[in-house]
Amino acid sequence: MQIIGKEQILDHVDLPAVLNDIENGFKAFASGKAQVAPVTHLGFDTSNGECHIKCAHVDGDEVFTVKLATGFYDNPAKGMSSSNGFMAVISAEHGTPLAILQDEGVLTDLRTALAGVLATRLGARSSAKTIGILGSGIQGHLQAKLICELLGYKSVVIWGRDDEKTASLIEVLRSELPDVDVAQAETPSELCEKADVIVTTTPSKAPLIEAEWVRPGTHIVAVGADSPGKQEIDEQLFARASQIFVDSPSQCIEHGETTNALQAKVIAESDLTPLGEALLNGAKPRSDDDITIADLTGVAVQDAAIAKSVWLNMEQRSK
């Protein structure tokens, strides 16, 4: 069994190919052609941390993946990354572990951001120009960067709770995306005024976006609420949405933004559209005034897709 470090892993990531693989993973999941185990969560209140364990196999794939990812949100103040973890690539033929991708959480970060790219491409109106990012951490950075690079957006506005971190992220993005206008919003309500697509990326446990702030025509991509107790969006916003996409109906019902809207009886489970189903069959037409929401809790088929892509790329290059 190989143990492969982060730098070598990053050398074998082909983002457009991985985006396609993740899209196919969602389609397989929606079609009943993938096994996805229930998510295991551990929470560490005293250290503001959490651990997720996910595993999946897509029918016909020669390997399956078991992923452990951690998020310890006070780490940046200690000079450490807030995310960490690894993925195990295992033979689906004989159960032998083939590799440990010791990615330190970077593959989880990338696959999460790429799901945001897919959700933005699917749900945003064709005239959308400005991406609003709620949060100044790793996901805020990657969502802004990859949505602009892969979908061609030229305007980004960012709000974060830490002004220093937000200013630093803006500086980084301006360097990485010289053709993109990157600005800071002073408040979440200002971000809602300026953005056509809003991507929420914080681990907040209380709503940061009120329903009445969101303009008609806005597409929301909710990424931060990936475990019980988290919430970034006022549940009443769901009552204004014409379409609600969920990466995993069971997960979103249990611990996504959707949970709060269902508990408040603002929506019903029948209002939810699996993301993979919409990618497979197309989303229903939207008007320029429709509000749409994509609730992304992170599905193990994303891990299986990115781990397989990296593993096969390494195998091919070694021949």
Automatic annotation (TrEMBL):
Family statement drawn from the similarity comment of this UniProt entry: Belongs to the ornithine cyclodeaminase/mu-crystallin family.
Segments forming a coiled coil: none
PANTHER family, per database record: KETIMINE REDUCTASE MU-CRYSTALLIN (PTHR13812:SF19)
Organism (species): Cohaesibacter gelatinilyticus
Cellular component, GO, one term: cytoplasm
Highest classification ranks of the organism: Bacteria, Pseudomonadati, Pseudomonadota, Alphaproteobacteria, Hyphomicrobiales
Protein's recorded name: Ornithine cyclodeaminase
Pfam families (alphabetical): OCD_Mu_crystall
